[in-house]
Amino acid sequence: MRNFLLASIALLSINAYSQSYVILDNGIVVTTDKAGFTYDLGQFAFPQRVTLKGGKYFVEEGKILSTVDEKGFLHRKHEVLPAKILGKGINYFMSTEGDLYTIDKKGYVVISQHPELIGATKFGGNYFYVPFDAEKNTGDLYTVTQDGVLVKAVAETFNISEVVAFGGTYFMNNRGIIHTISADGVLAAKPEMRVGVLVKKGGNYFTDSSGGIFTVMEDGNVKLPGIPMTLKIGQITKLGSSYFLDLNGKLFVVDGNGDVFERTMADHDFRHARIISL
Question: Is residue 56 helix, strand or coil?
Fold first, then answer.
């Protein structure tokens, strides 16, 4: 078992959404823990057999569900999975019958039934929308916490027509204001952040039309992080839930403090990444 400890500064991170994975074309599964460390734990998954994927989980043929816990360990389990998926996010997926599957930070799966969620749409990384008045474009906005708990985001009705761009742990309305969802499921507007048109939308980060990169912290705050000298924003190509790859196969992770780090694994060529966790 090989464990690559790649940046001691990442110990400061607290973001459970950083736990994730990438599957290379040779079947090697590389995982990340909540602190942004990167691991090869000697586990494999055939990319062509992956039938469903989210930020902290993927499903293989035979209804084998794999989840990643906050320590970066991959857990495989047999679950009674729905025949049809209505939508999915970083740590949840939902059936057309309103059965909600959530994955908590320890990799456990919780299944709950919510008939009121039938017809849900506009699935983000940790939120989704349930309409109840099609003419007025109003409905309820729900969030899913890092512990897999379902939360109704706002007490009043939510007008979905005001949202012009959907992302992982954030969205933008028609006034150009970014709204974020924290790890605890709290929705908050961030009018103080001046952001252009969203261009590349990852799980807890995005780029805008000005060529900048913004990150969303675990507490829901947004920042313009310092970036590694090796990162060229225009070369970002593959977008994951808490990481991204550039054209040269360089791997960059975003930790819970919204900081960006390059991760190097000498025995792995991420240009051959096949399954990205988003």
Answer: coil
